[in-house]
TrEMBL record, chain A:
Taxonomic lineage: Eukaryota, Metazoa, Chordata, Craniata, Vertebrata
Classification via Pfam families: ELP6
Native organism: Alaudala cheleensis (Asian short-toed lark)
GO cellular component terms, semicolon-separated: cytoplasm; elongator holoenzyme complex; nucleus
Name of the molecule in the record: Elongator complex protein 6
Cited InterPro entries: ELP6, P-loop_NTPase
Automatic annotation (TrEMBL), chain B:
Name the record gives this protein: Elongator complex protein 4
Pathway: tRNA modification; 5-methoxycarbonylmethyl-2-thiouridine-tRNA biosynthesis
Function: Component of the elongator complex which is required for multiple tRNA modifications, including mcm5U (5-methoxycarbonylmethyl uridine), mcm5s2U (5-methoxycarbonylmethyl-2-thiouridine), and ncm5U (5-carbamoylmethyl uridine). The elongator complex catalyzes the formation of carboxymethyluridine in the wobble base at position 34 in tRNAs.
CDD domains, per database record: Elp4
InterPro entries: Elongator_complex_protein_4, P-loop_NTPase
Gene3D superfamilies the record matches: P-loop containing nucleotide triphosphate hydrolases (3.40.50.300)
Length: 249, 299
C-alpha cells in the first residue's frame, strides 16, 4: 500500500505490464482510475478479456474510472461552445490557457476519493503513458508536479498505489523526457524496466525485464535488482531466467 | 496511423503514397488527400494502374526466373502492401489474394479514379479562409487540416454517427510531406523549432480521429531534414506503424556490390500492437526495395 511503481520500457513496448496491472488490481477488488492517453477503451477491453477481466463490467459497477485521453482531447477541441464550464476537461492544458496539469489532477482526485458507494480495497492510479504529456506541450516541471500531487493524495492520504508507464530510449535526445524519467526513478518504490534484447530481435525471447526494488528510501541500502527474460503470448507472458528460455533448453 | 519517413528526394515515399491511394480506389474506399506541395488533383492523376490477375502472374513469373538464376539464399518475394505488414512468401508463384498489384509504368484510368468519392485539402487554397476555432496552440495549417478531416468524418458518417447509412465504408487519408516548411512548420529546418509541439499535437489529435472512425492514414514526413531527434522519438510513440525508406541515390551504398539489384532499404521501426498483447513480428527484418519498369517490390 502507498507504493509508487514505475514501468519503464526501452527499445520495446512495455504496455503488456500495463495490461497486467490493470487486470491484477481489478481482480483484487481495488478501485482503479486508469488514465489511458494513447489507446482506445476497446483496445484495453479486448486484451483484458483475454486476461479474464471485463472492463465494461468494472466500469458499470463503479470499480473502474476510465479516462480515454484521445476521446477527451477530441471533445475538448471539437466540442460545442456550450460545454459546462464548471466541469473542465481533464486535458484542459491542451487548450492553452494554463500549462499545468491541475485539471487532470482534479480528475484523478475526484475519481479516487471515497464516495461512499461500494467498498473497494484501496485506490489505484494507473497511467499509460506519461511521456505523451510532454509531446502535448506540458513542461517537465508540470508533469513532475502532477505526479507529486497525485502521490500525496493517492499514496499518502488514501494509502493507495500508483503505477505509471514511461518510455525511454538509450542515447535519447529527448532531454525533457530523460529528466522526467530520471526524477521518477529516484522516487519509485519499485521499477519494472522492460528492455529489448541488446543482441537484437529474437522470436522466443521478446525482451528482458529488470526489477528494481527500493528497500529503503532513507538508508543507503542497495536496491534489490532481479533480471528475467520474457516472452509475450496471446493470453499470457512467461518469465524465465536469462538463457533458460524453452527454445534454448 | 502509418508514419513513413521519406527518402532523401521523396521519390519512393511518393510512390508508396500513391500505392496507398490507388488501393483505396480499387477497393472502393473514400479518399482524403492532403498536401502543401502538389495539388491533390494532380496527385490523383498520377496513380499507378492496377494489374489484372493473369498479367500479374506473368510478371511475377518473369521476375521469379530472374531471381532464381541468381543463386540467392532464402530469397523471399513479396509485393508491398501499404496498409498491413508485408506478407513473406516462400514461393514466388503462390501469391495471396489479399490486396492488388499495380503497374507503375501505366497511369490509372480517369474513369476508375472517378469511381470513388474523394476529398482534397491543398493548404494554399485553404489558407484564405479564417479558422474559427478556439485556441488550439497549434500551427494553423495543421489545425485547418484536422478540422477538415473531422468534418469529412462526421459528415460522411465514418464515425458511425449516421445509422441510416446503408453501407459502411473506409476512409483512406493520405497526408504528404507533413512537417515540411511548406506547412509553415520549421521543425524540419531548425534545431530549436519555434513550436516543437505542433507536429506531435497534430499527430495526437489525428490519432484520436482515426481511433473513433473507420479510417486509415498514411503520412509521409521528410525526417531526413529534421535536426531535432527528440521530436522523432516522440512521433514514433504517437504512431502505430513507422516505416523509413532509405534510397541509395547519391550515397556510397549505390556502388556497394551487396546492393547492386536494389534501389534502397526499408526500415521498419515500429509495427502496430493493437487489441492484443502480441504483435505480428515477421521473421525477416532486413528489407530492401527496387523499382523495375513496372513493379515496385520489397524483399
Amino acid at each position: 500500500q502507498g507504493k509508487f511503481t514505475l514501468l519503464r520500457d526501452t527499445r520495446t513496448d512495455g504496455s503488456f505490464l500495463v495490461h497486467h496491472f490493470l487486470s491484477f488490481y481489478l481482480r483484487a477488488g481495488c478501485k482503479v482510475c486508469f488514465v489511458a492517453l494513447l489507446q482506445s477503451f476497446s483496445h484495453y477491453n479486448i486484451v483484458a478479456q483475454k486476461l479474464g477481466v471485463s472492463l465494461t463490467a468494472a466500469k458499470e459497477r463503479g470499480q473502474l474510472v476510465f479516462l480515454e485521453g484521445l476521446k477527451s482531447c477530441l471533445d475538448l477541441l471539437f466540442g460545442e461552445e456550450e460545454q459546462q464550464p464548471e466541469q473542465p476537461s481533464p486535458l484542459q492544458f491542451l487548450s492553452g490557457s494554463s500549462g499545468d496539469l491541475r485539471a487532470l489532477f482534479e480528475f484523478v482526485r475526484a475519481s479516487l476519493s471515497p464516495s461512499g458507494q461500494g467498498s473497494w480495497k484501496g485506490p489505484v492510479l494507473l497511467l499509460d503513458d506519461l511521456s505523451v504529456l510532454l509531446s502535448l506541450g506540458a513542461s517537465p516541471v508540470a508533469v513532475l508536479d502532477f505526479i507529486h500531487y497525485c502521490r500525496v493524495v493517492v499514496c499518502y492520504q488514501l494509502k493507495g498505489n500508483i503505477v505509471v508507464l514511461v518510455h525511454s530510449n538509450e542515447d535519447s535526445e529527448d532531454e525533457e523526457n530523460e529528466l522526467v524519467v530520471n526524477s521518477l526513478c529516484h522516487h519509485s518504490d519499485l521499477i519494472l524496466w522492460a528492455e529489448g534484447l541488446a543482441t537484437g530481435f529474437c522470436k522466443d525471447v521478446h525482451g528482458q525485464i529488470k526489477i528494481i526494488k527500493r528497500l529503503s528510501l532513507w538508508q543507503a541500502e542497495q536496491d534489490l535488482v532481479q533480471i528475467y527474460q520474457y516472452k509475450i503470448q496471446d493470453r499470457n507472458v512467461t518469465f524465465f531466467a536469462p538463457g533458460l528460455s524453452a527454445a534454448v533448453l | 496511423l502509418v508514419f513513413t519517413e521519406e527518402d532523401k528526394y521523396g521519390l519512393y515515399s511518393n510512390l508508396l503514397f500513391k500505392y496507398f491511394l490507388a488501393e483505396g480506389i480499387v477497393c472502393g474506399h473514400e479518399l482524403f488527400v492532403a498536401s502543401a506541395k502538389e495539388h491533390p488533383d494532380n496527385i490523383l492523376k498520377e496513380l499507378p494502374a492496377p494489374l489484372l490477375d493473369d498479367t500479374y502472374g506473368k510478371e511475377l513469373g518473369d521476375e521469379a526466373a530472374a531471381v532464381k538464376s541468381e543463386d540467392f539464399q532464402d530469397s523471399m518475394k513479396i509485393a508491398w502492401r501499404y496498409q498491413n505488414l508485408p506478407k513473406m512468401e516462400t514461393s514466388p508463384t503462390t501469391y495471396t489474394k489479399f490486396g492488388h498489384y499495380y503497374d507503375v509504368s501505366k497511369k490509372m484510368s480517369p474513369e476508375l479514379c472517378q469511381s470513388v468519392k474523394w476529398h482534397s485539402f491543398y493548404l494554399h487554397e485553404e489558407l484564405s479562409s479564417e479558422p474559427k476555432m478556439k485556441t488550439w496552440n497549434m500551427n494553423s495549417g495543421y489545425a485547418k487540416l484536422l478540422q477538415s478531416i473531422q468534418k469529412v468524418i462526421s459528415e460522411e458518417g465514418f464515425d458511425g454517427s449516421d445509422p441510416q447509412k446503408k453501407q459502411r465504408n473506409v476512409l483512406r487519408i493520405g497526408i504528404q510531406s507533413l512537417g515540411s516548411v511548406l506547412w509553415g512548420d520549421d521543425v524540419c529546418c531548425s534545431d530549436t523549432p519555434e513550436d516543437p509541439h505542433s507536429l506531435t499535437k497534430f499527430l495526437y489529435v489525428l490519432r484520436g480521429l482515426l481511433r473513433k472512425s473507420l479510417s486509415a492514414c498514411i503520412i509521409t514526413v521528410p525526417t531526413h531534414l529534421m535536426q531535432n531527434k527528440a521530436i522523432m522519438e516522440r512521433v514514433t510513440n504517437l504512431s502505430d506503424m513507422v516505416v523509413g525508406l532509405e534510397s541509395f541515390i547519391g550515397s556510397e551504398r549505390e556502388t556497394n556490390p551487396l546492393y547492386k539489384d536494389y534501389h534502397g532499404l526499408v526500415h521498419v521501426h515500429q509495427i502496430p500492437r493493437l487489441n492484443s498483447l502480441m504483435c505480428d513480428v515477421s521473421d525477416t527484418k532486413d528489407l530492401a526495395f527496387r523499382l523495375k519498369r513496372k513493379l515496385f517490390t520489397i524483399e
